Amino acid sequence: MITLCGFPMSNYYNKVKLALLEKGIPFTEEGVKTHSQDEAVLSCSPLGKVPFLKTPHGALCESQVINDYLEAAYPDTPRLVPADPWQAAKMRELITFVELHLELVARELYAEAFFGAQVSEGTKKRVARVLPENIAAFKRLAKFGPYLAGDQFTLADCAGWVSLPLVALTTKTIYGEDFLAAAGVDWKAYAKLIGERPHAMKVTADRKADQERRAAAKAG
Question: What CATH class has 2-73?
């Protein structure tokens, strides 16, 4: 049995969870905080990051590595990677743009956008310069036809659905402007389309339930 380790507020945890659900792979979940220094966690994820996967073969970390493993290890479940090598590579290109050039850049602002900390003005200026350029580049690649890579749901959508709204919300919070929408990326319609899939609805419900539990625990 596969065990997905992490927590439902993590977009990368939900990226893997959505892939598992879409492929119909049985799994259990284990709550693990990010950056844990517990040896049991570090033996599975050396940087203490989540998510990571426990499998009969051992542990595996890094969300895209995990999703690529799931696709290769469970070929008889619904395919989330195009069979054509070129289209598969273009799909992975999109994932790289979403995560490396959009989400990771916006992540520099999360401390202030979501956690009440302060981010330096230098960081804000750098993100404000880099992110619009990266969004314009992403827009050249994304199909939205209606899915990121074209007319089929793929692993690119597992990545896009959990991260594009975060980029938009972050820039709206910090700069007063949704950088994605300003660039003509209709991420809301896209997020709605994916969010109406039954497995995405489960991911959302589980995330909200976890958020409510955390709020109740903090209040109590």
Answer: alpha beta
State what percent of residues in the chain have pLDDT above 70. 100
CATH number of 85-217: 1.20.1050.10
d(CA 205, CA 17): 13
Q: What angle do the packed helices 11-23 and 198-219 form, to 10 degrees?
A: 140
Distance CA 187, CA 161 (A): 9
Query: How far is residue 214 CA from its own chain's centroid?
Result: 21
Q: In the chain, where does DSSP find H-type helix? A: 11-23, 39-42, 63-73, 85-96, 104-107, 110-115, 121-141, 155-175, 179-182, 187-195, 198-219
Start and end residues for every CATH 3.40.30.10 domain found in the chain:
2-73
Is pTM beyond 0.90? Reply is yes
Pairing of strands 52-55, 2-6: antiparallel
In angstroms, the CA 120 to CA 107 distance is: 13
Distance, CA of 159 to CA of 82 (rounded, Å): 15
Residue segments in the chain with a per-residue pLDDT below the cut of 50: none
pLDDT digits (tens, 9 = 90+) for 81-103: 999 999 999 999 999 999 999 99
Residues of the chain with CATH 1.20.1050.10: 85-217
Angle formed by the axes of helices 187-195 and 198-219, nearest 10°: 100
